[in-house]
Amino acid sequence: MAATTKIHCIAHFIEPDLNKSNILGTTRHNVYTNTQRYNHFCSLSMNGCQARDPRTPVGMTETRTFQAVSSPAMAMERLNSAVSELGFDPPMFGSGIIRLEVPIEEEVEAIDWLRAQQQQQHNIPRCFFSGRRQARINNGYSSLIDYGGGNDGSSLVSIAGLGSAVFFRHFSPFSLHDWRSIKRFLSKKCPLIRAYGAIRFDALSNISSEWEAFGSFYFMIPQVEFNEFEGSSMLVTTIAWDESLSWTFGKAVHELQRTMRQVSSNIVKLRKEVPNTSILSSNNVPSKKLWDFGVNRALQMINKNSSPLTKVVLARSSIIRTSPDIDPLTWLATLQVEGENAYQFCLQPPDAPSFIGNTPEQLFHRNKFDIYSEAMAGTRARGDSKALDLQIALDLLSSTKDDKEFTIVRECIKRKLEAVCTTILVEPEKTIRKLRRVQHLYARLRGRLRSEDDEFDILSSLHPTPAVCGFPTEEARVLIAETEMFDRGMYAGPVGWFGGGESEFAVGIRSALVEKGLGALIYAGRDSRRK
């Protein structure tokens, strides 16, 4: 049977010791009621998904930019004054969102700022997102992807957020109602007000205990945000309120000030090198024996004459515990060195582990009516020399087996874009994308949306891609749900952000669920396909 292995992980795997304790208490069988899940943090912010009519925008959307200062401490001082002044002069609208931003005349890395926020209360959510700064395609072609601009016109490199001005979470699958609930707080005239978050790989499967705080999806517009630009920075606070959700302007200001009191301006640059770490224990789910059984069963299903399945991607999880403890942001900073051409992200709801990752795979990028997506499949290692690296790339380009897999992925994405786009351009149709340690077959797709409101249809149709699920999608998803013995959660799901006129999502592979002091859940996938 033909089978190709793809490892989407950020640590080495060790054979399991099933007698050792489960580090994060993971199980497929822990299911909680919606009431239990909501109670532990609803009072910290408002859940925008509870809006009765999400088609109605909030009463006001505004960005106020203050004069640039020389340091994060001075920016924080200015924002404290501005928020206090707002508290004495509240807007006349019953709902709205206001962004207050202070440019900083030095470039500070957003991840360093977030690492400095050692909040006393674990129930304050946080997020981090860094777009791909440079994507090198096919020996020298490169492009700079612009993720928004600062006052000086430079590109937004990464953002870090603390606290949620408004969050969006539910335990039902992400719906058009939920998408509209997010979009009502966003506006083209305030492009840097964005909702950052992730969606489960399979919203129809049961949510296990380690993923319960994330729900079926979790997005947040940060209360306090640090923006890293090329050559400068910006400190931001955001106030969101909606009286129809019992969240008044006064309450929003009070909660923002409580979060701001915990913000530190003493920023120490993180060392971006692999820490000297020892693995104390490792537990793989499923075991090697059960894993082999599952893969063989999937191959048997695929090779039945009556089966429509041509490919399925099964995953495996490893639970590890290290000495010293794993710190999610230190780990993520280390991964930035490995992934210049990748997205880095961290998402942590209140009282929850951190979902972190370093993924090269774009799901889509929308800029007004223009939509971009990518097809990536087939994997080879990089060569030790230029000559060997080129030979490996040529072998990958000429591989019949890898071409079949790549064609499935590319054509599947193309068909889904055609359903909502007036035109589709695939260029290049097949080339090599080189990353630091591996190289892949690659194609870039571009379309023109009929309506910007088709964004929800794009997201719901493109996910999951054949590269992380299989083909046909629904048959592969059902087989995965029947076979895997753990909850993927947000692993291999969409992770990214919504903006007023722009949105971008990556595929959440090469990711882990990490909680300092408790350990990490790391995931890997294996692609099985018909001969």
UniProtKB/TrEMBL annotation:
<keyword id="KW-0413">Isomerase</keyword>
<protein>
    <recommendedName>
        <fullName>isochorismate synthase</fullName>
        <ecNumber>5.4.4.2</ecNumber>
    </recommendedName>
</protein>
<feature type="domain" description="Chorismate-utilising enzyme C-terminal">
    <location>
        <begin position="291"/>
        <end position="525"/>
    </location>
</feature>
<dbReference type="InterPro" id="IPR004561">
    <property type="entry name" value="IsoChor_synthase"/>
</dbReference>
<dbReference type="Pfam" id="PF00425">
    <property type="entry name" value="Chorismate_bind"/>
</dbReference>
<dbReference type="GO" id="GO:0008909">
    <property type="term" value="F:isochorismate synthase activity"/>
</dbReference>
<comment type="similarity">
    <text>Belongs to the isochorismate synthase family.</text>
</comment>
<dbReference type="GO" id="GO:0006952">
    <property type="term" value="P:defense response"/>
</dbReference>
<dbReference type="InterPro" id="IPR015890">
    <property type="entry name" value="Chorismate_C"/>
</dbReference>
<keyword id="KW-0150">Chloroplast</keyword>
<keyword id="KW-0611">Plant defense</keyword>
<keyword id="KW-0934">Plastid</keyword>
<keyword id="KW-0809">Transit peptide</keyword>
<dbReference type="InterPro" id="IPR005801">
    <property type="entry name" value="ADC_synthase"/>
</dbReference>
<keyword id="KW-0460">Magnesium</keyword>
<dbReference type="GO" id="GO:0042372">
    <property type="term" value="P:phylloquinone biosynthetic process"/>
</dbReference>
<dbReference type="GO" id="GO:0009507">
    <property type="term" value="C:chloroplast"/>
</dbReference>
<dbReference type="InterPro" id="IPR044250">
    <property type="entry name" value="MenF-like"/>
</dbReference>
